[in-house]
């Protein structure tokens, strides 16, 4: 019904820079009808998934998210339409071979209980005929990637792991043969909220490193806007209600359905999208514990700051006394003070605000790798960053997504960009 | 006890034959039962059919079945093997169907999802997962078939059954009782040895991941 197009070279993912290892996926007029009489579970879906980006499928239960995802690796065969991966129509190729080139993670990991962690992870490489040595070193590499100590966990069985650890091994198994595409169906649905939070953070940093093309099914809108470069909101029959960036889904819902789905507090949710490293940092007055309070006071007065930051030799914050405290002090603190208002560069603005609001200075200390001090952020700089994001003008155009049957896809030969052309040449 | 001492060699030989007949029939039955289960386990209707077959099969008196087989198969080892294998199949089939169909569908899906073929999924995921249950079926079968094997002596099959039948036919005669008692004890000992061997096989072949 429409031309096959590929979007190679189009890199819509946020935080570009790393090399993209993912490939573009295109669902072209895909329909799935389970019974001959029932309404289609997926109805003429055309969806572009740009290379190296994370696309989240959200929507109410039974709207066809899982069906859509499973048609990408053909665990479910489409009734109609075609799936194009990296420019190649995979609708008729051998399904098992196709799936070996894609990672697949289900809820609770889906690990084989009768195999060790290493055997689980090494399964796909083994099927691909890698030698033992290469499989073993790949297993260790992946365990490290998902923050599990290889020596400790390699030979364990799935039942000897916690839910979160099983989920990590599931992700490692999916990444084993370095597939360009990763499909995950409610991957963090079966773990407790704190573990889920951690796994989400890990997923973000893994993706920053690997830049795969990732499709994640979830029914949690917070998870969708947090992890996704793009979010698809589906209704019954996989009808797209909105396919857009998380910011625009939150700040500019396309219709009441999306607005209801996003729910209240959409403005606050944008705080969870931006991260501390996006906020410009300010300098602080820095002293060492060996200096005297008088010296510290003089430095503070010279620069007009109300607080002085004491750093140890590794540049890690020890204490952050105010000028008043310094006047009363005999010497500067040597011992690391607990409860310093510290945030990591990867923390969300929500976390940063939370930290700031309880801090005496009304600001937070930003630390990078190994806890090294990198700068200070305060309410004003955070608000400014938020305003810039809300404007959202410099965001890239959303990928193609529609349930319209009467269209043709056209691919620009120069940019690889896909556009929709209504068939009938504008007669509609 | 003189009876045993005098015929030690004959008893040992009969015991070995008994053991080997049962063991081979159970192995043969396992192969057939797993193959049948492989065909049945995915369809609700075929599963019910298999379970019905098992239930009905177990109610057929073994003596009658052996008698019936004399006409087509004659006397000797063949009818004995056929009857033993038939009975051995039943519990293994039932357990194999239960074991295979209780493998979580999410596991099968994740095996298929990472690119394992249908066959690979069956032999590397579903069968190993169902193996402990199948092995339990084999142990039940081997116990059950021990007794049936003794009756198979009626068609001149091998094993300890011969001693029982010859003892019973000479009732009141010299050594008649000793012959029967020796054979019965022999069957029990052979059964215990086979069960121990199957238990050992279980320890060696059931993945530690399924036991922890
Ligand atoms: N194997 C099947 N046979 C028949 N109908 C099915 C089958 N699988 C799914 N469906 C139907 O297709 C529709 C979409 O199902 P799907 O599993 O894709 O929903 P989902 O969006 O993943 O829902 P959930 O959030 O509950 O997982 C549902 O109405 C469901 O009943
Ligand atoms: Mg689902």
TrEMBL record, chain A:
This is ABC-type quaternary amine transporter. One of its GO terms (cellular component) is membrane. Keywords: ATP-binding, CBS domain, Nucleotide-binding, Repeat, Transport. It holds the Pfam family ABC_tran. Gene3D superfamilies: CBS-domain (3.10.580.10), P-loop containing nucleotide triphosphate hydrolases (3.40.50.300). PROSITE patterns: ABC_TRANSPORTER_1, ABC_TRANSPORTER_2, CBS. GO terms for biological process: glycine betaine transport. Belongs to the ABC transporter superfamily. Its EC number is 7.6.2.9. Residues 279-338 form the CBS domain. It comes from the Bacteria. One of its GO terms (molecular function) is ABC-type quaternary ammonium compound transporting activity. Residues 388-428 are annotated as: Disordered. Residues 25-262 form the ABC transporter domain. It comes from Kocuria coralli.
TrEMBL record, chain B:
The chain crosses the membrane at residues 20-41, 53-70, 76-93, 144-165, 177-201. GO terms for cellular component: plasma membrane. One of its GO terms (biological process) is transmembrane transport. This is ABC transporter permease. It is a multi-pass membrane protein. The lineage of its organism: Bacteria, Bacillati, Actinomycetota, Actinomycetes, Micrococcales. Residues 15-198 form the ABC transmembrane type-1 domain. It is found in: Cell membrane; Membrane. The keyword Transport applies. Belongs to the binding-protein-dependent transport system permease family. PROSITE patterns: ABC_TM1. Keywords: Membrane, Transmembrane, Transmembrane helix, Transport. Pfam families: BPD_transp_1.
